[in-house]
Amino acid sequence: MNKTRLEAFSDGVIAIIITIMVLELKVPHGTELADLAGLVPVFLSYVLSFVYVGIYWNNHHHMLHTVRTVTGGLLWANLHLLFWLSLIPFATAWMGENHFAAKPVALYGFVLLMAATAYRLLASGFIRHEGEGSTLATALGKDLKGRLSLVAYAAGIAAAFVAPAISLGLYVMVAISWVIPDRRVERLIRND
């Protein structure tokens, strides 16, 4: 099957996810800057989640640029990824509203872990479909960054019950590692 419907649907869902997150930012009752102080955890949660959703959108775009067609199984794998991404607004709101308490931070890490797992499953499905010599397989290689991200999320979930700040630090570090542009796919496409 052609990949354009999968791309369009995914882009639409991701746009809705970002819209839901921004709608969770409630305007304070008051006109003083001090009135914004209570929103700092909510805003910081939003920023982190916006970056994560942006990372997934960017990497999803790159991944789909390397493939020619999709199968029914890949459509389901993509829906699996979108399901976990769709939970980011809920986890973000709970974490921000509760000022980074242990259980909300752990849930946030769990959602990130599951989204990363779903992304890896989708990428693996595309590699099986396109072949081990495909552009995507070559670009991902052993995917050390992806594997380390899963470990960091799992460590963040465990750390949340001891020190949520450590968890948040791990989540931020993973985000930073993915925000730095990964030129592997672009380089391979340019050389084709």
State which percent range the strand residues make up.
Answer: under 5%
Mean pLDDT over the residues: 93
Please tally the β strands and state the result. 0
* Separation of the first and last Cα atoms: 23 Å
How would you characterize the largest beta sheet? none
Shape: globular
Order of helices and strands: HHHHHHHHH
Give the low-confidence spans. none
Structural class: mainly alpha
- Provide the gyration radius in Å: 18 Å
Count of discrete alpha- or pi-helical segments spanning 4 or more residues: 9
| Helicity range | over 70%
What is this structure's SSE topology?
Elements lengths: L3 H20 L16 H26 L6 H15 L1 H10 L4 H29 L4 H6 L3 H17 L3 H16 L4 H8 L1
Structure in a nutshell:
This protein has helices at about 5-25, 40-65, 70-85, 90-95, 100-130, 135-140, 145-160, 165-180, 185-190. The protein is mainly α and about 190 residues long.
Describe the structure.
This protein has 192 residues and is mostly helical. 77% of the residues lie in helices and 0% in strands. The radius of gyration is 18 Å and the shape is globular.
Keywords:
192 residues, 9 helices
